[in-house]
Design a protein that fits this description.
The chain is of the alpha+beta class. It has one domain: 2-Layer Sandwich (Alpha-Beta Plaits), CATH 3.30.70.920. It has four helices and four strands. It has a four-stranded antiparallel beta sheet. It starts with a strand and ends with a helix. About 15% of the residues are buried.
């Protein structure tokens, strides 16, 4: 499956939810699984983004649907990036 990088920033509402229910992060991972995607790595970060998630999804349409679903809740803002494995990228340059 293709790999995507999801950069997310919590809204005030999302930060409040997470403060009182930190396990919500894992629940969202299960929701992604139900939508056909798999979180392969997840990091809390400092700086302009609160979280970096590495996600595998069937295609661009699926990850777009997932990004809209998560963003529409009002607890997070998302930036979704397709990730090309470096060997595939090099091969495409030949």
């Amino acid at each position: 499956m293709p790999t995507y990088i999801l950069l997310s920033t919590l809204t005030d509402e999302g930060a409040a939810t997470l403060k009182y229910k930190p396990d919500r992060l894992k629940e969202v991972n299960e929701e992604l699984r139900a939508l056909g995607a798999e979180v392969t790595a997840q990091y809390a970060t400092l700086g302009p983004y609160d979280f970096v998630n590495i996600v595998e999804a069937p295609d661009n349409a699926a990850i777009a649907r997932i990004s809209i679903e998560l963003s529409s809740r009002g607890s997070v803002r998302m930036l979704t990036l397709p990730a090309v494995p470096i060997d595939d990228f090099i091969e495409s340059l030949k």
